[in-house]
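Session log. Operator J.P. requested a structure for one protein chain; no other inputs attached. Running the standard single-chain path with token output.
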Amino acid sequence: MTSVRWASLATVVGCALVALVCLVAMLRGRTWAAVPGLVALAIGFREVRVLQRRSP
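Structure written below.
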């Protein structure tokens, strides 16, 4: 791996953190946390695919 897209990597890590916080909130009974958690997961998965496509 010669170059890393640091912005995409930071996005994946940030989305994982947000999804984890939302998961904890959902387990504590906050059903509203499902929507931002799913959005964060979708964005994170999209960025992982971008990183996989651009790696040599």
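Operator note: The mean pLDDT is 90.
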